[in-house]
Amino acid sequence: MKTISSRVVKKFITRSQSLLSSTASLTSIASFNVSNKAFPSSLLDDFAKFCYQRDLPRAMQALELMHTHCIWADCIAYSELIKCCLARRAIQHGKRVHVHLFSNGHVPKTFLINILINMYVKFGLLHEAQDVFEKMPERNVVSWTTMISAYSAAKLNDKALEFLVLMQREGVRPNMFTYSSVLRACDGLFNLRQLHCCIIKIGLDSDVFVRSALIDVYSRWGQLENALRVFDEMVTGDLVVWSSIIAGLAQNSDGDEALRLFKRMKRAGFLAQQPTLTSVLRACTGLALLELGRQVHVHVLKYDQDLILNNALLDMYCKCGSLEDANAIFVRMVEKDVISWSTMIAGLAQNGYSKEALKLFESMKVLGIKPNYVTIVGVLFACSHAGLVEEGLYYFHSMKELYGIDPGREHYGCMIDLLGRAGRLSEAVDLINEMECEPDAVTWRALLNACRVHRNVDVAIHAAKQVLRLDPQDAGTYHYNVTPTGCIYSYECYDGSSKLQKNGEWSTDELIGHINCHLPLYINRLISKQTEINRGG
């Protein structure tokens, strides 16, 4: 009993000391004459200390005391507190700092207001950021650039371009960061070329950030010639610019040129970093260059636990068909995200290991990792190539309910292929008719191929018409030979020359129908051609 009493007393003393410590500053301020302008420095010192230590709870307690007694700290301490709010995703605390900074007629410096705007931008609260911006008594280039960058990131391209014009009307000159942000908001080549001319005129075209942004945007619009011209005009080499041009070439499927520049970059003495290596791996993936990919892998070893690079390696090995290497990477990865799992599932499915892909998907679910759009595409692809119709139907119909994923063209395409392979053509047609988005030519081609396998002429004619409607530039000739039972005997793509190829010969008595469907030119004559041949037979 004495022991228990002793513990209770000790606990009471400890709590009392803690309470006394936490109210010490309040007591000193309460006993201080608030009208005196010599504010107690201890509170400001404590506030600054808590901010620099990133001790958010105690920093906010000190802030409340300061707010009560109209005390303001220096800008640096507040900037540290806002950084702490961002790191903790403490939105309400950040808003409380905002209220304090503008309380009782106090107006913080432009430097601090810019940090506040940036805080709201990073929290994704663009409306609040704009509200702070509009109430600023004075705006500098950082204020404008922060908003332009925010609008650009939010795909509000017109707003970003509008702010570029407004800032110049107010006499604020854009800098390299302004232009690198607004360039990424260009939604057309006309605006891009105009901005490029302005950049050259004011002499910012040699800046690393601007040059990199120009290359990125030209590449995004498929203007590789212009992107390479900007790159070739570079006088002083910079790794950022090298990375941009290599990434642009890889994204536009010009893997040969991307790899050539990568080798040139190495000869110039630049050490490849994560973004560059990711782009080079993408180029190796597009060209299925396994050995070169393995050479790049050597450079990746120093970034062994980099998630983005590991995912790029996974994708490269899967696309090159080296599943043993892919699995070794996957097993060794300490950190895996949904992209890692989706890449491995798709790699297994595309390389003929459908059942293993589905097992991996089940393991992913057990670990509580939520699949995304691409994951389900890989799962349905696996079901299609394994002939698992019921499983595929289950995954397809439950993706919305279980994971909140709306079926897209890729999902429908896998299901059409799955049903078509199983000979359930009427269900495949019904599914196409139920699609919320318009089926594309790939979807109809999947159905057309199923018609060849299962010899369904009527559905084939309908599917072929849809292919031509959606892709009139299709250069293939689809050649159908119809047997006396009315079923398709052969189907092949033709190279477009004037003579049709045949897979077999039939006598006049055997040939009831011979449909030549030359998609670009003859699809409208398909039915009449069949009728004429039938009458002649």
Which properties best describe this structure?
Serine Threonine Protein Phosphatase 5, Tetratricopeptide repeat; 3% strand; disordered N terminus; TPR-like_helical_dom_sf; 537 residues; single chain; 4-stranded antiparallel beta sheet; mainly alpha; 30 helices; 68% helix; globular
Strand content: under 5%
The outline comes out as globular
- Which spans have pLDDT < 50 for at least 5 consecutive residues? 1-5, 8-14, 16-38, 475-531
Q: Using only CA atoms, what is the Rg?
A: 33 Å
Characterize this entry briefly.
68% of the residues lie in helices and 3% in strands. The protein contains 30 helices and 4 strands.
How does the SSE layout of this entry go?
Blueprint: H1 2-22, H2 24-30, H3 41-52, H4 56-68, H5 75-88, H6 91-101, H7 110-122, H8 126-134, H9 141-153, H10 157-169, H11 176-183, H12 189-202, H13 208-220, H14 224-232, H15 239-251, H16 255-267, H17 274-287, H18 290-300, H19 307-319, H20 323-332, H21 338-350, H22 354-366, H23 373-386, H24 389-403, H25 409-421, H26 425-434, H27 441-454, H28 457-470, E1 477-482, E2 488-490, E3 493-494, E4 513-518, H29 519-522, H30 526-536
Antiparallel strand pairs: 1-2, 1-3, 1-4
Helix pairs in contact: 3-4, 3-5, 5-6, 5-7, 7-8, 7-9, 8-9, 9-10, 9-11, 11-13, 12-13, 13-14, 13-15, 14-15, 15-16, 15-17, 16-17, 17-18, 17-19, 18-19, 19-20, 19-21, 20-21, 21-22, 21-23, 22-23, 23-24, 23-25, 24-25, 25-26, 25-27, 26-27, 27-28
